[in-house]
Amino acid sequence: MSQEPVAIIAGGGDMPLRVAAACRATGRPFVVVQLDGFANPADWVGEKTMTFRLGAAGAAFDWLKAAGARQLILVGNVKRPSIFSLRPDAKAAKYLARIGMKAFSGDDSLLSALRQVMREEGFEPMGPTRFLQEAQSPPGLLTRTAPDAGALADIRRGIEVVRAIGATDVGQGAVVQQGLVLAVEAIEGTDAMLARAGGLRREGPGGVLVKLVKPGQDREVDLPALGPRTVEGAIAAGLAGIAFEANGALLMDRDEMVSKADSAGLFLLAIRPDDHVGPEPAGAAT
């Protein structure tokens, strides 16, 4: 593996730390660009790092070039800023002029535009899956509990809904119970959507959270993320289970996710969406 440093563009959460640990394990040097307001500075004490305000892209790119980093890993939780909060430096202002309103429309449009700018600046944007292949799951059931016929029907309905909202670059998830759409994911994120869905729960069998990659989404750089908090939110919302796209989601702390789900009798199912659409439900183990 190349010994030039890889740059971890770090947002919030544990995923940037996991990428750093994987780099250490393989002997790959790295530098860290902490996204101001999202990354936790205490996590990066002792590392070669700079803090990057989202509107100061010019300074960040200059620092990365000086550090010898060409490959960039975008990882961690980041909320898209408003145009009024950016306060762009001179170079960032030029980028924004080229990106235009893509920076303030859907997430995919913004990420696509950012990757274009990075490549034009001589960088190679990458996703965390280059270092965290174990964070993905092939098709199959991860838990002791499996979905019943009603849950499989809700999964099919959820796939239809998530594909529809994903095509308009709105969100990656939906909660369906007994065929009714309780909530769809937008800018609030999965945790907030689950909390909202819990308040709308109907009597009877619990619903299902479905998370998919959006149509046309860059699987290398941007995948849905699920973790123990997702499972906790699904339990609190009274759901029967979670279905997510096989090899199309980042599972944070998979063992803890499975343990929490098994304790609550919740299913976790990695699916190939096309196997679960059509006139008849597909089997739970596909």
TrEMBL record:
EC number, as in UniProt: 3.6.1.54
Sequence ranges assigned to domain LpxI N-terminal in this UniProt record: 6-134
Protein name: UDP-2,3-diacylglucosamine diphosphatase LpxI
Keywords tagged on the record: Hydrolase
Domain LpxI C-terminal: 139-268
InterPro entries for the chain: LpxI, LpxI_C, LpxI_C_sf, LpxI_N
Gene: lpxI
Coiled-coil ranges (or none): none
Family matches, as Gene3D superfamilies: 3.40.140.80, 3.40.50.20
